[in-house]
Recover the amino acids of this structure.
């Protein structure tokens, strides 16, 4: 994690710790401030450790299922709150863990979900705040391994978008992936995030592909085949990546020949 991003998250966490200690929610106001402050510091620190991966998990869930990213992150929060609350609840109960009631577990889960969601919002706010000062491109992420050896597609026409990438990633653009205020540019050499709107990035690549999903643009030269499963379509790219196709885009892609001779997922 970049030092400026970590510093921003810790600063916001400290401010939230002080705020919760002063407000004393969930009945903690009955205890002295000197006791509330370390209580909420420990709670938020624990929530930070357990919920730090939630955004990444939500992003992965959104890419795999096609869910909107905020919905996927909320689902990851709901899932992450359960083990976190149980660890905190039974850990504090100690040897009296058998006496923990269902109502206590439900209360602990709700409290942990609220705190965990707060921590997740902290991360999103910190990321948004530091994005303005961050470089346009972040360290590259290696592409997933291909399912089978394939020939690299022809280089796309020169684009100002390539100039925003590190020099070693300026290859053929395979697809674009929308991630909040960023666009992840996938090339045949890797991928990197660029701070810009998806529609602006797509406009720079006009005529080279199509926006097949709200979160995806795909280069026509990168498509190996298309597969249908029930009512859903997915495009297989030269690097082995599978990109979901929105139902509203199916008719246009079929008319352009992208879905011709597509194998069935059951075949």
């Amino acid at each position: 994690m970049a030092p400026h991003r970590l510093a921003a998250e810790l600063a916001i966490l400290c401010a939230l710790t002080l705020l919760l200690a002063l407000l004393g929610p969930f009945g903690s106001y009955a205890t002295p401030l000197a006791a509330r402050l370390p209580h909420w510091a420990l709670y938020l620190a624990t929530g930070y450790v357990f919920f730090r991966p939630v955004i990444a998990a939500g992003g992965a869930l959104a890419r795999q299922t096609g869910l909107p990213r905020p919905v996927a992150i909320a689902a990851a929060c709901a899932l992450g709150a359960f083990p976190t609350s149980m660890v905190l609840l039974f850990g504090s109960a100690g040897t009296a863990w058998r006496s923990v009631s269902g109502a206590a577990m439900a209360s602990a889960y709700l409290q942990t979900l609220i705190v965990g969601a707060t921590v997740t919002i902290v991360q999103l706010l910190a990321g948004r705040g530091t994005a303005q000062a961050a470089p346009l491109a972040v360290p590259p992420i290696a592409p997933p391994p291909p399912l089978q050896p394939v020939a690299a597609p022809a280089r796309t026409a020169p684009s100002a978008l390539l100039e925003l990438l590190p020099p070693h990633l300026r290859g053929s653009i395979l697809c674009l992936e929308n991630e909040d205020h960023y666009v992840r540019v996938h090339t045949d050499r890797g991928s990197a995030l660029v701070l810009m709107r998806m529609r602006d990035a797509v406009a720079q690549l006009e005529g080279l592909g199509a926006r097949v999903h709200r979160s995806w643009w795909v280069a026509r030269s990168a498509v190996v085949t298309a597969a249908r499963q029930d009512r859903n379509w997915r495009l297989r790219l030269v690097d082995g990546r599978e990109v979901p196709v929105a139902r509203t885009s199916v008719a246009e892609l079929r008319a352009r020949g992208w879905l011709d001779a597509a194998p069935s997922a059951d075949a």
